[in-house]
Here is the input.
Amino acid sequence: MTSNDKHPGTLAWPPLVRGRLIRRYKRFLADVALDDGRTVSAHCPNSGSMTACCAPGQPVYLSLHDDPQRKLKFTWELIRMPTALVGVNTLVPNRLAARAIAAGCIPELTGYGPPRCEVKVEAHTRLDLMLTCQDRPDCYIEVKNCTLVEDGVARFPDARTVRGQKHLETLARLKAGGSRAVMLFIVQRGDATVFAPADGIDPAYGRGLRQAAAAGVEILVYDVAIDLTGIALRRPLPCRL
Here is the structure.
């Protein structure tokens, strides 16, 4: 591969099938015209608006699953937009973050044991990752997928998210209780130079992010090196609150 060759935190894609996007609809469905002439419906693993990454006619890449229990055999993984290849699968950033942390690719999160995933922290709340070390406070991490980029500014969220606000409040409570709390945004494309909350889409989330930062929650933002063989964290982006 090119951008990710030998990177220790690389997450490889499964074999990909190329086509062109016809439409995305009902949030979790997409119709795709494959290069072999077939038209298929694919699962779209992204609940956001996907404003900046669902243009009809753009090349898309799907993974194929042979599980007989699955209604849809294809999953939409990538779309090639005019300025970047974009990862649309919101499950990828969690796996990528866990792999990158374990490989020591996030300097701010080194010095811990292997990450634990989907950690229950309150009665009805789970956070994506937890890191532990015998002589350090526990570190709780929530990971968010960012695909919206406007004039070089990566923004989150791309749709209103009450659940995202609750995660910020949970992180702030954990920090107040003596733990370390981290909000990690992964920008699944490579054409952004800075990150900022999408106040025009969800002003409440923007306020919540600033309040969480003021309470000591650490805000980390990384973009990715991405190509048709894999994806890896590339560099930290400045956060403009």
Notes: The chain has a mean pLDDT of 95.
